[in-house]
Amino acid sequence: MKPERALVSAALRAPGIAHAFFTREGGVSDGVYASLNGGVGSRDAPEAVAENRRRMAAALGVAPDALLIPYQTHSPDAVIVTGPFAERPRCDALVAATPGLALGVTGADCGMILFAEPQARVVGAAHAGWRGALGGVLEATLEAMERLGARRERIVAALGPAIGAKSYEVGAEFYGAFVEADEGYAAFFTPGPGAEKFHFDLPRFIGFRLRAAGVGLFEDLARDTYAEPAHFFSYRRSVHLGEPDYGRLVSAIALLDPA
Q: What is the pLDDT at residue 1?
């Protein structure tokens, strides 16, 4: 089977917009980082991560310094950008309407969501683990896109590889945090293998929040980072295997000059 170097969403395809949910294939890193590790926060060789990101930028059709990825903090914050930045903003979503920029996020189980409003030519990328999804990062991304002229009902959102419900076992405290926020969120949990254990469906929760916020179209690529070690990095899997570190996947969307 030919290695998958990047996944794409049919929903995001539009003139003047390029995107990719990069897998772990096609880079220069080795060991636990093999091979397309995009994580500057990992202990991988910095020059390897830089080359991997250069390859990603080239695949998207932008300059290396135009692939913009924030310093992620599991926050509900979205930032509008207009050009390359010298220092990464601390946030979990980026939004832009400037041609020549690619907006990216990293993940290794958390949700990576790419957004596009082709008519207004506005794009966005968000990193949503359980904290960000519960805290409102998805809604903040939509609001930032609207400030640039996007219309919510025309926004398309696609969720890339993320940890699946069967792989995401959590405890009673985790379950309680969601039910305290909204009793209806109990619907996103199923009983786990033991007492006070649950499985949480992060992809379905992300889809629910986006649809409830009025997004025009949502697509889930339905790929489980934990369950597919040949294709994806996974923080949780690395912990279970006792590995010293883990690579980070990158998902990014670029606004290009119209043909």
A: 39
